[in-house]
Design brief:
Length: 762
């Protein structure tokens, strides 16, 4: 045989090599292309599946507040002193002791008598630890199901190593067992108030028929998958013999590290925000507004300028900040696994805010001596408020102190927080003693409650601080307009304040001049105008609702304005948005369309589409199905759509799940009375008999509420009306007169009094 020529041999080798490359490329491409279907759903696998590959992160996480968010009560997890310790409160002595391996508390139980209760779970770690008692476990419950848990108010201060009684805000009296604020009441129920954010993949599983819980979680505390999402797909992909991650699912986890900060922020937000649920299907990486409805700037939770008043859990504050609008995210400051700050002291801020050397962390900027509290960035830009007696939480709106706004609006400012104590000497001796140990928030609350001497002391402090800022900054001092000015003017009823609120609602997020108007403030302006009946807001609300570029929070608030519109106007404005892509918007559209009366103006086919949307609304409401208010709200929507049998069942469910609550019996009585009058059926007599029984059963709860809120005119008036309906006319007149004393300008109260007097004179 003739040897193959060199060119031919090279050509053959090239062909072989090319074929091999093609085969390899084809294999690589096939490897890349063989993805899991887009609809593949990941499931929870637990932190043990993460540790082998993520040992460093696991070590950092171990011992963190997330790791210790909740646990079984054991010698290792219980921090409180159960060595026969006692705590005196409300005229009783509670005792914490051991019974073998069990941790026990002797205190007042649901009957009001002293009883022994076993602590089954611990809750939280710093600065306080709380303890939980199990109720209602039945023999048919599986071990992985958790029945009703109640959180004791007897708590352990982990910083000062002491027991203390955690009182509700503004409640100094002993709580009776039928009070929802008592430790056995619904306000201290783990499933209702806490569970969502202290465990991973929690499902409440409340049965409103049996009124029992069958709660489950995949892990007892806040574990890896609470932040990264269910991990089964990630584990599967990591163990696969592939060169690539999945082209449809990436790493199989939420993408929290990309250039856009929002995925991370919205993954943290559910547990760090004050909100209601739209469903319980949120997974990290989802849109927050498809699963939650953020609470807006309500007067009882935020000051008019957006500073924190009640507990709001950070997110609602942070999205007001300029930091948020510049793309800053949680992990820029906090380590995501230890949860500790990445730097200590001012370095947390100056690691980013370096600019010219010595621009910020120097007396020429903060005007305080180095090393003093006034030289700390957070004390000026993130002042704290103490909640739960010992828990200092910082305001994450990260703002420049504005004592000028404090003088104008009565809002707090960080300067006065430190310097208001300088005014102690201006108070009388009794108040000096009282306020010597109180913090700034307590001064503010006292002033708002009408304490003129405290209010004057605060104003003097604010004025002094404002003048100091003028001296420091002179003509260069920045005092831009603030959304709090429009909100305060509106709440005070000042002339042209509605126009100011309309301008606020239409403001861009940021003007070319740098003025920041958070979406939360714009949505709050719409909500306040709606609640006050300012019909001038309707055209503006329609513009915002129809603008798809507006954020869901603003568009949902705009939909809410149509509660004060005519039914026809509500129908025209809301009907086009029944299929809105945002669950927050479309459920609010459906709710308002029904509640406004717009439902009755629709054709049969149109009502059918609304009925389909109502099912989504019902699902959202039943996320709080262990609360009477959820069933009452659903009952009222059923009434508005003519579904009276369903409304009756919903009112009955409200009575069943919270037997001591006020409201459902009165509403149900009115509904049955109306049906009896309309039907003229043989059952009318028995129906009216039930009406009387319901109203009689409601009276003790109305009386209780009137005693608990003696200064609330609306509560006193409602009790008076119920006394009238019960035939107790003289008592009703006294109660309505009391309501008029408390609120003399309410025409409805005076009209009811005059009609009742006329009836008594007959």
């Amino acid at each position: 045989m003739q040897p193959i020529s060199s060119p031919l041999k090279s050509k053959r080798l090239a062909l072989v090599a090319g074929a091999a490359i093609l085969l390899l490329a084809g294999g690589v491409f096939a490897d890349y292309w063989s993805a899991r279907p887009p609809e593949t759903v990941a499931t929870y696998v637990g932190r043990a599946a993460c540790i082998d590959c993520h040992q460093e992160e696991s070590l950092a996480f171990t011992g963190s507040d997330h790791d210790k968010a909740m646990d079984l009560a054991t010698d290792e997890t219980v921090l409180g002193d159960f060595d026969d310790a006692t705590l005196d409160h409300d005229g009783m002595t509670s005792r914490m002791f051991r019974d073998g391996k069990r941790f026990m508390v002797r205190t007042d139980g649901p009957s009001g008598e002293m009883e022994d209760f076993e602590v089954k779970y611990v809750f939280g770690v710093e600065p306080l630890q709380q303890y939980m008692v199990e109720f209602d476990r039945t023999d048919d419950m599986s071990p992985n199901e958790v029945p009703r848990l109640q959180v004791l108010r007897i708590s352990w201060d982990t910083i000062n190593k002491r027991w203390f009684y955690l009182r509700p805000p503004d409640v100094d009296d002993k709580l009776l067992p039928d009070d929802p604020l008592h430790w056995t009441g619904i306000a201290q129920r783990w499933q209702t108030m806490c569970a969502d954010c202290h465990s991973t993949n929690l499902k409440s599983n409340f049965d409103p028929v049996t009124t029992k819980y069958h709660t489950t979680f995949s892990e007892i505390d806040v574990s890896c998958e609470a932040c990264h999402g269910p991990g089964s797909l990630h584990v599967e992909l990591a163990n696969a013999k592939s060169l690539f991650w999945d082209r449809n699912h990436g790493y199989g986890l939420a993408r929290l590290k990309g250039p856009d900060a929002e995925p991370q922020l919205q993954s943290c937000a559910p547990c760090h925000s004050r909100r209601s649920l739209l469903d319980d299907q949120f997974k990290p990486g989802d849109m927050y507004t498809d699963h939650y409805n953020l609470e807006l700037l309500r007067a009882d939770t935020y000051h008019a300028d957006g500073q924190i008043k009640d507990e709001v859990y950070v997110y609602g504050s942070f999205i007001q900040s300029r930091m948020h609008h510049k793309g800053i995210r949680c992990t820029d400051c906090h380590d995501p696994h230890t949860l500790k700050l990445k730097s200590t002291g001012n370095e947390t801020c100056t690691s980013c805010h370096q600019h010219a050397a010595g621009k910020y962390d120097v007396p020429s900027h903060h005007h305080h001596a180095v090393g003093t509290p006034g030289a700390m960035c957070v004390n000026c830009h993130m002042p704290h408020t103490t909640y739960m007696d010992v828990d200092k939480r910082r305001d994450h709106s990260i703002r420049v102190p504005r004592p000028d706004l404090s003088v104008e609006l009565g809002t707090p400012n960080a300067c006065s927080q430190c310097h208001v104590a300088d005014q102690l000497k201006s108070l009388d001796t009794k108040r000096q003693t009282e306020f010597a140990t109180k913090e700034y928030a307590d001064w503010i609350l006292a002033a708002q409650a009408g304490d003129e001497s405290v209010a004057d002391a605060i104003l003097r402090t604010d004025t002094w601080c404002d003048e100091a800022c003028d001296r420091w900054y002179g003509d260069s001092r920045k005092q831009p307009d603030h959304f709090g000015q429009a909100i305060t003017a509106f709440r005070r009823g000042e002339p042209d304040s509605v126009a100011g609120m309309l301008r606020l609602a239409m403001m861009p997020t940021e003007t070319p001049q740098g003025q920041l108007t958070p979406d939360m403030a714009r949505a709050s302006a719409l909500a306040e105008m709606a609640s006050s009946g300012a019909a001038e807001a309707i055209p503006t609300a329609k513009k915002l609702l129809d603008d798809p570029d507006q954020p869901p929070m603003v568009r949902a608030a705009a939909a809410g304005v149509f509660l004060i519109a005519s039914p026809e106007a509500a129908r025209r404005a809301l009907q086009p948005h029944l299929q809105d892509p945002s669950r927050l918007v479309r459920t609010e559209v459906v709710r308002v369309l029904v509640a406004s009366g717009g439902y009755q103006t629709l054709t049969g086919a149109e009502q059918l589409r609304v009925d389909q949307g109502l099912e989504e609304v019902r699902e959202g409401m039943m996320m709080a199905g262990d609360r009477a208010g959820a069933h009452m709200a659903w009952a009222m929507l059923c009434e508005a759509t003519g579904r009276y049998d369903e409304a009756i069942k919903a009112y009955e469910a409200a009575i069943r799940v919270e037997p001591n609550t006020t409201g459902p019996r009165s509403n149900l009585a009115t509904l049955i009375e109306n049906l009896a009058q309309q039907s003229q059926s043989p059952n009318s007599v028995s129906m009216l008999q039930r009406v009387g029984e319901l109203r009689a059963a409601e009276l003790p709860f109305l009386k209780r509420d009137a005693n608990l809120a003696p200064d609330n005119a609306a509560v006193q008036y409602r009790f008076g009306l119920s006394l009238y309906l019960a035939g107790q006319f003289d008592e009703a007149l006294d109660q309505i007169e009391l309501a008029i004393e408390l609120a003399p300008d309410v025409a409805e109260f005076r009209q009811a009094r005059d009609l009742l007097k006329a009836k008594l004179a007959e």
